[in-house]
Amino acid sequence: MTDRQFAVLGAEGPKAYFASRTRRTLGHAYLFSGVPGVGKKTFARRLAQSLLCAENGDRVLGYCGSCASCHLFESASATHPDFLEHNGTLKIGDSDGAMGFHEGEDLTSRDVVRQLMMRSYSGGMRILLLGDIEFATHHAANALLKFVEEPPQGVLLLLTTATPGKIISTIRSRVSELRFSSLTRNELVQILCSEGVSSDEATLTAAMAHGSLLKARALLGAEQEASLRSAVAAWFFDVVEGRTPETGWATRETLDEGVELVRTLARDWMVLSTQTQSPVLAGDFITRLRELRPLQSSAAIALLASLDEARSISTTNVPPAMVAERIRMAVYSAVR
Amino acid sequence: MKFTCNTKDIASAVGAAGKVVNAHTTVPILSNVLLTGSDGKIAIRATDLEVTLEHAFAADVTEPGSATVPAKLFASYVGNLGAGVLEFSGSATRASVKCERSNYDFLALPADEYPPLPAASRAEAFTLPAKVFREAVNGTIFAASNEEARGAVLMGTLLELDGQLLTMVATDGYRLAKWTVTLENPVGEPTKYIVPSRALSEAARNIAGAEHVEVAALGAQGNQLRFAAGDVAVTVRLVDGQYPNYGQVIPAKFDRSITVGTSAFIAALRRAELVAGDRASMVKLAVTNQTLVVTASSEGTGNAYEELEVEQHGEDLTIAFNARYLVEILNHLESSHAVLEFLGPLSPAVIRPSEASAAGNQMYVLMPLRQ
After folding, report:
1. In this structure, CATH architecture of domain B126-247
2. Domain B250-366 -> CATH class
3. 106-165 in B: which are within 8 Å (CB) of A?
4. I need a surface site. Which of A77, A249, A250, B21 has the fewest CB within 10 A?
5. Residue B53 near chain A (CB below 8 Å)
6. Distance from CA of A112 to the nearest CA of B (A)
7. ipTM higher than threshold 0.85
8. Which residues contact A272 (CB under 8 A, 6 or more apart)?
9. Chain B contacts of A119, Cβ < 8 Å?
10. Shortest alpha-carbon distance between residue A69 and chain B (Å)
């Protein structure tokens, strides 16, 4: 038999769970939850490939990468006929629509239910991945209820979400939920390097990505974001050092990201001040952060509370410059 | 792969097979057709993963192999060629076509990425005359549900094999169609397949010109059913589920029956339906003194009254039906006269032809309406 592989970094918990399963003890539906960009859908696709691999026997994880089934998973222009993936919002669909199997963007809850009622194309399992699942209406969610209540044989439903609380309780209580934790910095570096990013750039990006590959890719692709990051950080350090810089970075488009970075910097400042073992999230500014005067605990708590308040205000129609000014006052008070 | 063939042959095969290609598919390979050349034949295959169509034709295959080409584009191209000889040469990424002074290159996708059909299962195959198959399919599938919300099982048609009998059944819960055909050779194990009705109709349509159709299950668990007739094969994915126990809704005995001329009855029902209005196209049938009175009424349109002579057995009866359902059933009867059997005004009625048909035994069950 060919050596088996399972090319997914991170996800140690789900890996351990599925490694302990056989095809007979596998559930019929799983909900993969975790923040965006931690590999939930990648894991689900690899799990599907493993279960449809012709060389994998009764095991759940691992695929040969060379059989005809694996070949279809690796192809850009084809897909395995017994694997259906849909991402995003699921509508209920017309009651009498005669939809085919791979309708892509038009796939609806009723299509899904109909597909679940079909026998497999090639004789093995049928796997359905509904990524970033959101139901457009409760009717769309209820259409899937019958399946999760009485699953047909040989079908596996994989749902992924960053907000499991939004899945209606009747579905959530009938599926097994597996939590995906953030990727470690090393895992992110490995993935980015495998995508052709230079080692230095990967290390720097991974430090800023908060364990999310999605965020890392966005950071790499967005020079604008990098310049915003530099501008906000420079503004923050100026404020801490008692200066009154311009709040040019604060616009309606950049406010959320800017406030988030200030919160991260303030949080890291507090971590370094209290010398706890927590990791520094804004690793690219660690040298500047270490140079700052330690923050008193009470001042740190007050600062974080003020920043939370600023974040909340930033979602209203208060002018961005005023939000930035409020943050400046909060930081200034903390330093004093 | 390289071959030379007649332009008309390839245009007809690609046009017929390409009909199943879904124009909105998001999987690129599924918008292509697969051409496979070997032993003096080219087979064209297209699929939407629910129905797979294969059309073959004779060709001079100089280099056996496979290639895929975009279905719609290629079908339009070969469809616009005049009569002549076409030279085809295909690789994993390109397909070159030469016909007299026309020379085209099409972008192709690797043939090994085309979804392979599973091998034939160990279940026995059976053969029946294509004409009988077509009549049985057409006389059955109209009764299947076309409402997605009612589930794939009721949208399918049951093919039940037992000994020498093939029974096709379709029902939407209001009416049921059953057609029994006697096979030339008995099958081994009794087997049941639920075939999506749309796919079954596609199979019947594609084998129109053939004499016999051979039906065989594919895959280890018989996941797909292949209908092959000459150079054409239609493979359909089966529905996974339990078909309702249809025997329960067919009354075991009747106490009344009428025999009526089919075409006169259809015409009377069609006229009466015009005034039946929105109430489920309800028409009332009153049987008395060897006469059938068809009435319908609605506040918005008026009243209908039709009288027909019938052969009556048993007591008088008044019963109501959905006129559209009744007409649809009568339209599929292969007989000049129809027999309607009743047990009472609220029990399902059975409708069958008065004469036996060479194509098999037809029987329909229709639920009455409350008057």
Report:
1. Roll (3.10)
2. alpha beta
3. 109-110, 112-116, 118, 146-149, 151-153, 155
4. A77
5. no
6. 11
7. no
8. A280, A289, A290, A292, A294
9. 219, 221, 223-224, 237-240
10. 9
Query: Is B28 an 8 Å CB contact of chain A?
Result: yes
Verdict on whether the full-model pTM lies above 0.80: no
**Which of B153, B201, B240, B243 is best to mutate for the A interface (most A CBs within 10 A)?**
B240
Q: Write out the two tokens for A274.
A: 């209290």
Tokens of A1: 């038999």
Q: What CATH topology corresponds to B2-113?
A: DNA Polymerase III; Chain A, domain 2 (3.10.150)
Question: CA of A2, closest CA in chain B: separation in Å?
Answer: 20
The second-level CATH assignment, the architecture, of A12-181 is 3-Layer(aba) Sandwich (3.40)
Q: Which two tokens stand for residue B199?
A: 């796919």
Q: What are the pLDDT tens digits along chain B (371 aa)?
A: 999 999 999 999 999 988 889 877 878 899 999 999 999 999 999 999 889 999 999 999 999 999 999 999 999 999 999 999 999 999 988 999 999 888 999 989 999 999 988 888 766 789 999 999 999 999 999 999 988 777 789 999 999 999 899 999 999 999 999 999 999 888 888 899 999 998 999 999 998 878 999 999 998 788 899 999 999 999 999 998 899 999 998 998 999 999 999 999 999 999 999 988 776 789 999 999 999 999 999 888 899 999 999 999 999 999 999 999 999 999 999 889 999 999 989 999 999 999 877 767 999 999 999 87
Q: How are beta strands B41-47 and B311-313 bridged, if at all?
A: unpaired
Residue A12, number of CB atoms within 10 A of its CB: 12
Judged by DSSP in three states, B24 sits in coil
Cα A245 to Cα A261: distance, rounded to the nearest angstrom:
17
Nearest to A77 among B28, B118, B237 (CB): B28
Residues of B in Cβ contact (< 8 Å) with A117: 151-153, 239-241
